[in-house]
Amino acid sequence: MHSEYTPKRPESLIVEDADGIVTVTLNRPDIHNAFDEILIGDLHGLFRSLADRADILAVVLTGAGKSFSAGADLNWMKRAADHTQHENFEDAMQFSNMMDALYALPMTTIAMVNGTAMGGGLGLCACCDIAVAADTAQFALSEVRLGIIPGVISPYVIQAIGIRESHRWFQTGEGFGAVEALRMGLLHKVCAPDVLEEETGAILKEIKKGGPNAIRASKTLLREVAGRELDDTTRRETAQRIAGQRATREGREGLSAFLEKRKPDWIA
Fold first, then answer.
1. Phi, psi torsion values for 64, nearest 5 degrees
2. Domain for residue 268, yes or no?
């Protein structure tokens, strides 16, 4: 593992770091990559360590075996059943901090959904900027069937699929397939399982064509402008953002390369 963070249970995570792409694989296939407090803490530490690395263009999140992530580990849930409300709150905040660390990463994040994504596993998918899934993948927000709610993941899921869709899936707990997930906006692309890595690689290839700093600035722009009122303050701020980007070395190089009909210097 090339990050500074040392996981408490390293066998539960596989981290590959090459050519500006970090691939994080949840590695608990025997329990469908379900997470407990240890894996949550390890993911939180890993994501925080990646946040400061300017050399990373994208982070890809996937699962080992047949599942992406089935959500919470049953043994962890059993332990939580005996917790006080405050202890449950602390557990939930640990999970929330991990989700926020993934959501807040400055580089592009891609969920490569190789199989089942349930509950919190679906939440991880919703946290990522881009989501690609095998057409065999199954999804569910099944919390209500356990007498609980999709509390921590709700902001990310609602942002991904919208309020109207969320009304149905939050309350019925029913499962749905990859085609339905694509229709509602949770996924960007669905493909056969045997070409999932290839399709993800094709998206990464397109990302590499953009200026690395411009991609990060575009992600920040999305987060800070989405939902705001289109008033004079917003218009002036967005104008200032593009003016500032044009004045950077990367912005000048990109425009010069376009005018000179050559590749910009960030493309090898």
1. -85, 145
2. no
Per the CB < 8 A criterion, the answer to whether 116 and 137 are in contact is yes
Task: Tell whether 83 is covered by a domain.
Answer: yes
Packed helices 212-225 and 232-246: angle between N→C axes, nearest 10 degrees: 170
* CB 134, CB 114: distance < 8 Å: yes
Q: Across 4-8, 22-26, 77-81, which has the greatest mean pLDDT?
A: 22-26
Cα distance between residue 165 and residue 186, in whole Å: 10
Q: Return the structure tokens found at 59.
A: 């982070």
Question: Are residues 155 and 236 both part of a single domain?
Answer: no
Residue 52 lies inside a defined structural domain of this protein: yes
**pTM, rounded to two decimals:** 0.95
Q: Are 108 and 219 in contact (CB under 8 A)?
A: yes
> Is 219 found in the same domain as 159?
no
Reported as a single tens digit per residue, the pLDDT across 211-236 is: 999 999 999 999 999 989 999 999 99
171 and 64 inside one domain: yes
